[in-house]
Amino acid sequence: MDPVRNPYAPGAGQRPPELAGRDRELQQFEVVLERVARGRPERSMVVTGLRGVGKTVLLNTFKSMAMQRLWGTGKIEARPDQSIRRPVAAALHMAIRELAPRHRGPERIEEFLGVLKAFAMRDPAAAKGTSHWSPGIDVPASRGRADSGDLEIDLTELFVDAASVATDLGVGVALFIDEMQDVQAADISALCAACHELSQTGGPLIVVGAGLPHLPSVLSASKSYSERLFRYARLDKLDREAADMALLVPAREEGVEFTQEALDALYEAADGYPYFVQAYGKVAWDYAPRTPITLDDVKVSAPEAEEELAVGFFGSRYERATPAERDYMHAMAAIGDEPVATSDVADSLGRKPSSLSPARDSLIKKGLIYSAERGLIAFTVPHFGRFLRAQPI
């Protein structure tokens, strides 16, 4: 069939043509938006899940929903080697710029931008002699507000001021943070404290984060009240009905059908993970000579999908690991696909658990594994164990 008309999108963060199986999360965020619009107290939101379950897609969808309500929005992607001060400043700058044309008092906007500039220029990563650095804001930096150098104090003051600007317009501001588990520990603490202050004052600013399954434990380790500070949504693989809809709805818009046997085989291959559903659906379409797409089409095309996943989805991550880290992951894979005990990995390698801590910690920082709970670790990528067991050691 015509590959140009192929509707499937197995790309990082690319929205699939049919966002199936996420109605509950979309309704939850709709409630958050509506409550904030009515001046009701509401928690910020955190979405968690393994790689490939659609966290970034959902985060981007939330952002679009907020923009449709004329909110100010900004988005960042956290990095473990970077303070969030500058990225947050840039994101809030964008959010306020979205609101500025509708604000009656330009001096009020300029006042906030002066605070924002002062906040950004206190980035500790700025090298000596670069105090002239500017975040592209054409107003003088304010003094005495959000510029103490203590991120917790500064971020709280910045959020309160941004919320005040939004209050004047009767709308909200939303800051979206992808890969939130990579925010540095001190910055996570500051972020929680700022959200806590907003939750007490009722300011119309929310933080919406997305990250790996251990993100809630990262937040709770930072501030004990974070468990009550955020509304948590855990994304998992799609059930059979949702996975079928992800394939059928876009295909039918192009006049294409699947046989039931083909759908059975695709669900077994993809195991319901949204990224895999798109990957297998895409190659099945390209290989099928005509509609309906059959079981034979799936069987013929599946090896290409598996090869693409092995190179792009699994292989690219595997290549980032050092030899010692690869040994650690192979040992995990040999034990099984469920969360495994760190002591079992050490036994498998004939090493003391303490000697493997550097490899384990480095794999966690690289986002390849996570601590499911104390003493247990698991892969962040679904089916990664299966991939590793097929690789030569």
UniProtKB/TrEMBL annotation:
Family annotation (PROSITE patterns): CYTC (PS51007)
Keyword annotations: Heme, Iron, Metal-binding
One GO MF term attached to the UniProt entry: heme binding
Domain called Cytochrome c: residue spans: 167-318
Annotated segments matching region Disordered: 1-23
Pfam families per UniProt: AAA_16
The organism of origin for this protein: Nonomuraea dietziae
Protein name in the entry: Cytochrome c domain-containing protein
SUPFAM superfamilies assigned to the protein according to its UniProt record, in alphabetical order: P-loop containing nucleoside triphosphate hydrolases
